Amino acid sequence: MRVQQLVYIAAAEPDPTAPVPSAPPVPPGPGETCRNWGLVCCSGQSDGTDEATTSPILVGPRQHAHSITGHSRLRPSLSALYIQREPEPAVSSQLAHRSLATNQPDRVRTSSSFVAGSAPCAAMEQEEARAPLLQPQPRGGAGETAAAGGTKAGRARRAAVEWWVESKKLWNIVGPAIFQRIALYGINVVTQAFIGHLGDLELAAFSIASTVVAGFNFGFLLGMASALETLCGQAFGAKKHHMLGVYLQRSWIVLLIFAAGLTPTYIFMEPLLLLIGQSPELSRLAGRMSIWLIPQHFAMAMLLPLTRFLQSQLKNWITAVTAGAALAVHVVVTYLLVQYFQLGIVGAVAAADMSWWLVVLGQLVYVVGGWCPLSWKGFSMEAFNDFWDFIKLSSASGVMLCLENWYYRVLVLLTGYLKNAEIAVDALSICQTINGWEMMIPFGFLAATGVRVSNELGAGSGKGARFAIIVSITTSVVIGLVFWFLILYFDDRIALLFTSSEVVLAAVHKLSVLLAFTILLNSVQPVLSGVAIGSGWQALVAYVNVGTYYLIGVPLGIILGWPLHLGVGGIWSGMIGGTAVQTVILAYLTVKCDWDEEAKIASTRMQKWAADLK
User: Fold this and answer.
1) Residue 388: helix, strand or coil by DSSP?
2) Structure confidence at residue 4 (pLDDT)
3) In whole angstroms, what is the distance from residue 604 CA to residue 597 CA?
């Protein structure tokens, strides 16, 4: 805190014989005579703590004015400042206010005269004509009680304002992230709808190609791109903007290398399906579709880092606009290729490829076209620095999210081995479709939480990261409770959107409670995964996912489904148990985490990698 000026206040009955002490004297206590003391109020800036200032700032004569410089705990509320009067000639009975800096009479300089950057103390100026400047208050009196109440009210208002500010920051990311995911998901839904009108075999082939092969690869690439979310978010918070462009290029290189390594899963799709016992017709058609999905595969490797690069800088609207525009174009182009030009499944898949690349080009032009001047400095060979460390973080991220992405796909696979599997799979597919659409909201919170936590840690604010987590989890849980109630209320009636079969509706009725609690649990678990991404815990969470999902959830589901004869409900219940255990572990890690230490770790990482770029 820096002193700019000192306010001098002369009392009505000055004592010119009062000696000037050699050291700042002790101020009078409550109720004592304030003969040689003037009183002025000032406001200061909080140091982020909730503790009130319990003692006034003591300043003696001018030679002791330095005492104020050591006081750093001013709250943003009125505080008393005692200033000892120097000997002066007598003045009139009216209060004479004089600034030592300007010598202007009849004026009190408040707040800004003492603390740089603080707001004027208007309340003091308004009350000075009506109340004595020094009015003793008995200890525990009405004035003290009112001050205590005002402090509590002020804390409540400040907490509400902080919550509102953090919520605005959160929703500025969540809203566009949800919209983008829905739009990209809508591209595949539109493609599936057009292919479904071509025939059942075509629909089954596209479902296998897009869900099994493309779904697996998308989950892995999505996880690898989350490493960029960690690093770009922390670099942006630390205001090392030039590092973001280098991280983006590094992520492109890593993801394109891994995308090339995963390409054989598309090329050899047909023999793989034949190996696991699928029909030759289905295997041949699915293999053909897989080849046409390769351009989309590489588009994902380019798009996922771009999206995280922009999200970490809070440029979220461009991600939503490009995805929405691509979806609109996709509907028109798919109709033309499939219905007008009669290109069939090839036309539908080619339209999807084109739409994904349209999103990539839109965001790429925005980045390299000059709209990110601080973070994009052009292509650089510095992208190859610390390459191995980046690969390790990206690989851990890929494993972490891929294990999550594949977990509930195992549920569908296991259900296919039950008796009367057709009805069970139909009911489960309806439930998973509903859950998939609702999951776009938690996935939006996953992205937003990762960005907010990484930004705060990069800025060195462990407290800010903790507060962002609290706001994000609370908001997501409230939304989850709304959907939980809606699912329980509508029960199997929500399945009427997909089927009119009484048998399937009855099966959905039995699964609706599990669907409701899955949605409720998913309102917490993805947010905690976002915390892990923002903090760089991907490797640790990958081990947690292996243990809870595949060593607890899947075996428990198998036991409940077959030996205990609970069917699809038992399998699903067991897998919910695995997710619950994982959520509890991540919640424990989050609560017990020393966020100030995490901020130091992030700062050290930024300094190290920034030094390597020089």
Assistant:
1) helix
2) 37
3) 11
CB 79 within 8 A of CB 44: yes
What are the pLDDT digits (tens) for 143-175? 444 444 458 888 888 999 999 999 999 999 999
Same domain, 265 and 320: yes
CA distance 412 to 431: 11
Q: Taking the model in full, what pTM does it have? A: 0.71
User: By C-alpha distance, which of 592, 480, 464 is closest to 526?
Assistant: 480
How, if at all, do strands 79-84 and 57-59 pair? parallel
> Which amino acid, one-letter code, is at 326?
A
The Cα 110–Cα 118 span in angstroms is 10
The CB-side HSE value for 116 (13 A sphere, CA atoms) comes to: 5
58 forms beta bridges with 82
Q: Quote the DSSP letter at residue 12.
A: S
Tell me the two tokens of residue 601: 């770790």
Which candidate, 399, 85, 482, 375, places its Cα nearest to that of 220? Answer: 399
Contact between 428 and 515 (Cβ < 8 Å): no
DSSP 130-141: TS-SS----TTS
- Give the C-alpha separation, 602 to 614, whole Å: 19
* Residue 270, amino acid: E
Helices (H), 66-133: 122-127
415 has a pLDDT exceeding 70:
yes
Residue 471 lies in a domain: yes
Flag whether 143 is in a domain.
Answer: no
Q: Please give the biggest Cα pair distance in the chain.
A: 111
Domain containing 599 equals 394-614
Same domain, 22 and 72: yes
